[in-house]
Amino acid sequence: MLLVIDVGNTNIVFGVYEDKKLINNWRIASEKNRTSDEYGLLFKQIFSHYGIGSEDIDSIIISSVVPPLMHTLQAMCIKYFNMEPLIVGPGIKTGMDIKYDNPKEVGADRIVNGVAGFDKYGGPLIIVDFGTAITFDAISAEGDYLGGVIAPGISISSDALFSRTAKLPKVEIAKPNRVIGKNTVNSIQSGLVYGCIGLVDYIIEKMMNEMSENGEKVRVIATGGFANLISKDSKYIEAVDNMLTLEGLRIIHDRNR
Question: Where are the domains of the chain?
Fold first, then answer.
């Protein structure tokens, strides 16, 4: 079995593959102050609940955008799974040519998404990841990573409104029935959700114009925590693939065997 771990700023998403089949997946909070022992015991407890033993894991691959957690999880893998994990970073085989000014600046999760996206959907392709930040990644028809866009995530916008204003409350992120709110909560929800939809579609439209020079159809796929909420009203997002990052980790692991 292969353990794949994607470390984000808000959540750690991990799953177990048997060959190419995802057996199960889980999501826990990214806690920078947890020790390797705490993470190790948490992983083993979750696995035990689902009948998976640490000895069943043959290999591990990790991608992370939280540097302080990388050493912690690496130490956890060595102590609790008796193996050194494969880390997505410089020098690893991805099969994707990175056309960034400095390829080392591209987040590991964005490369992983790009690899999985091109493998599953082909190119040209735009991948929108609704995480702590909203990232837009452009993949060419040949499978090259062309670059992208980084925008504040919907939770960041919500937190900023609450923390930087004296009277606005913290609200549940949900789509109201009408754009014009009749109360403060609905007004904030409208601004957050419909504002995000507008931002997403405008950026996608601009990216598609830059990518479809030869008249090629550019596909648009979404992933991440708020993908289902926003994609329903997007003019361009064709599908939501919540397991895209985990699938990308599996593909990269297979390419580095």
Answer: 2-87, 103-107+122-249
